[in-house]
From TrEMBL:
<dbReference type="Pfam" id="PF01238">
    <property type="entry name" value="PMI_typeI_C"/>
</dbReference>
<feature type="domain" description="Phosphomannose isomerase type I C-terminal">
    <location>
        <begin position="342"/>
        <end position="385"/>
    </location>
</feature>
<comment type="similarity">
    <text>Belongs to the mannose-6-phosphate isomerase type 1 family.</text>
</comment>
<dbReference type="InterPro" id="IPR014710">
    <property type="entry name" value="RmlC-like_jellyroll"/>
</dbReference>
<keyword id="KW-0479">Metal-binding</keyword>
<feature type="binding site">
    <location>
        <position position="278"/>
    </location>
    <ligand>
        <name>Zn(2+)</name>
    </ligand>
</feature>
<dbReference type="InterPro" id="IPR001250">
    <property type="entry name" value="Man6P_Isoase-1"/>
</dbReference>
<dbReference type="InterPro" id="IPR046456">
    <property type="entry name" value="PMI_typeI_C"/>
</dbReference>
<dbReference type="GO" id="GO:0008270">
    <property type="term" value="F:zinc ion binding"/>
</dbReference>
<feature type="domain" description="Phosphomannose isomerase type I catalytic">
    <location>
        <begin position="7"/>
        <end position="157"/>
    </location>
</feature>
<comment type="function">
    <text>Involved in the synthesis of the GDP-mannose and dolichol-phosphate-mannose required for a number of critical mannosyl transfer reactions.</text>
</comment>
<dbReference type="GO" id="GO:0009298">
    <property type="term" value="P:GDP-mannose biosynthetic process"/>
</dbReference>
<dbReference type="InterPro" id="IPR011051">
    <property type="entry name" value="RmlC_Cupin_sf"/>
</dbReference>
<dbReference type="Pfam" id="PF20512">
    <property type="entry name" value="PMI_typeI_hel"/>
</dbReference>
<keyword id="KW-0413">Isomerase</keyword>
<dbReference type="InterPro" id="IPR046458">
    <property type="entry name" value="PMI_typeI_hel"/>
</dbReference>
<dbReference type="InterPro" id="IPR046457">
    <property type="entry name" value="PMI_typeI_cat"/>
</dbReference>
Amino acid sequence: MTTSPKLFRVIGGAQNYDWGKLGSSSAVARFAKLNDPETVVIDEEKPYAELWMGTHPSVPTVLPDSNRKALRELVTEFPEETLGPDIIAKFGSKEGIPFLFKVLSIRKVLSIQAHPDKTLAKQLHASDPKHYPDDNHKPEMAVAITDFEAFCGFKPLAQIDELLQKIPEFKELVGADVTEEFHSGIASADVAGKKKLLQKVFSRVMNSPESKFEPLAASIVKKTKSDPALFGETLADLIQRLDAQFPNDIGLFCGCLMLNHCTLKSGEAIFLEAKDPHAYISGDIMECMAASDNVIRAGFTPKFKDVDVLVDCLTYSFNPVEEQKLKPAPFPRGSGDAKLNLYDPPIDEFSVLQTAFSTPGSEKFEGLEGPSLLIVTEGKGKIKLQGSETALDASTGNIFFIAPKAPVELISESNTPFTSYRAYCEA
Ligand SMILES: NNC(=O)[C@@H](O)[C@H](O)[C@H](O)COP(=O)(O)O
Ligand SMILES: [Zn+2]
């Protein structure tokens, strides 16, 4: 290859984490099979959790050519054409696309987790490369494809205080001393003081031994059945559902009793800064993040838990759920017949554009100032470089790389929905 084409199909890679939906019930499995029918065989017993699209070395995205060349290799070979000089200058790298784009299909709750900022990521990668595979931060955004549930950020402190006051098992785990200090302190302390008090409560929970929290968790689960009103119906149901997945787990305390439980309808989004505690619970989403796989876990998981690092690093901000949501915005650089929703968080590495057709027609986009990866999640249509004769089939599961400054056109040829998501990065 003497240069890199401006628009071409790629094949993403799947991760079979235990929490993924099983077999063809997983959008990840369906998309992977549709995009690579010759090689992908769906195992109906297997969980298909994540479909990765990007140049992160842990799960290569490849070209559908004979030797399945990695997209990372092509980018490294032709950085000017695939990333563009501005992106190379801005991120100081000629080796990879600054974002990682994923489809997640969630059957069971993911780990209670947070992701490091750049400083912490460098330290963790240097000291523990096995658990922290790169040195990058990992702010992320989730856009709901189906109804979606997640824990995101700490509950407002008055809500945590109320639960501490009325659930004796929670109070016992935290200790009467810290419970009292939290109760009397949150009214008057300044924000820094409030965060310190929240960290004390969280630290007591996270550092409690299994021998202490397991019986208390079991007692709480029983109480959600004997006295659901004490928790409220939604919380009582959530505790029972997650206990069924991870019996008597510490996540029942640090997740259910301390983190915001947010539900998103299709098209709604949340954005998580580095060091914000979260855990996705159910549904199918598009997820975009800075190109990293650094996850600091502490509950609802069989994977490596780094409790001390998590307790130390969190932001301890405490905002209501509504403030965690990211509203879609119009996208002025497209014109035509589709509905455009731009999800644009305050992060340099990525934005995500949803293009939704419900009638025949076309949508023309100006070239963007950086690389894009686009996946079709519903229906079928065509994609082409504006002015070109050849239009490529764009069906559910198909993934495309779009080079910087390449003006593309999406074409819908029917009245059935044709939806795609395009992650991109601009200097
Ligand atoms: N919030 N979502 C993410 O960060 C995903 O991109 C990660 O890949 C998931 O956290 C992986 O979850 P587990 O570590 O298997 O529990
Ligand atoms: Zn995460």
